[in-house]
Amino acid sequence: MADAPQGSPRALGVPDVIARKGSGAPLVMVTAYDAPSARAVDAAGVDLILVGDSVAMVVLGYDDTLHVTVDDIAHHTGAVARTTPRALVVADLPWMSYHRSREETVGNAAQLVRAGATAVKLEGGRKRLDAVGAILDAEIPVMGHLGLTPQSVNQLGGYRVQGKTLDAARVIVDDAVALAEAGCFALVLECVPDAVARMVTDSVPVPTIGIGAGRHCDGQVLVYHDILGFEDRVRPRFVRRYADLQSDATRGIERFAADVRAGRFPASGETYHAADTVSEALGLYGSVEHATA
Ligand code: KIV
What confidence category does residue 233 fall into, taking pLDDT thresholds of 50, 70 and 90? Predict the structure, then answer.
């Protein structure tokens, strides 16, 4: 691959992410689903962009993540990747895209790489080792995802904190060790008690990235729409909101609508004007407002 042009920061690679384990410099991952959100998070200097299957809920209006397909994720991954972010782009393998056969799993992961992802993420522990191995055999980096795995929402009976009993905590730790040994370069830990996240973080040689998993992880991830206050229907305890853009958007559109209805928009400076001679020929001279500039 050619060197990055002088002055432009080098894109982050998987080895850069792994090297952050225990470095004291926490990884920052934020979701993005289109070019504007990708530009915003990359300009903010995040390390990883996740094209998450949460797109189903925060962008596409579904009640869960089970409705998105590989084509959907590829579509959104392409939009993110075309902004050529410095951050490493990880794309979610959606439900039923890595459950049937090794061949189908690899084909789906490859589709996301061809759309612009550097790595893919999948949910689940030891029962996913075959899928992880197949994808890694195709030279595609894999991020694991343990704890609350939203693609299992029906089996879990809702979006609940996982790993609350000793046995359940041990399953998560053992799953994490198995995924790391299989070659996952990082693990997302979602909605687990902080003691469990700490145990996992201390037990694996790859970075853990927490969401609702407390501070003892090697990094943190949040959903773009949650951070910026676009998503105001539910607010889990682990979300910290840094802006209120949904309300700002509504207020901005209200002001536009009011200006249109009151005849304040468009103003002369927001209008293309014909030359006086053309207006005269059209018989409109004097009947239209003219730009002064
Ligand atoms: O899809 C998503 O946004 C995710 C995060 C919750 C980690 O998987």
Answer: confident
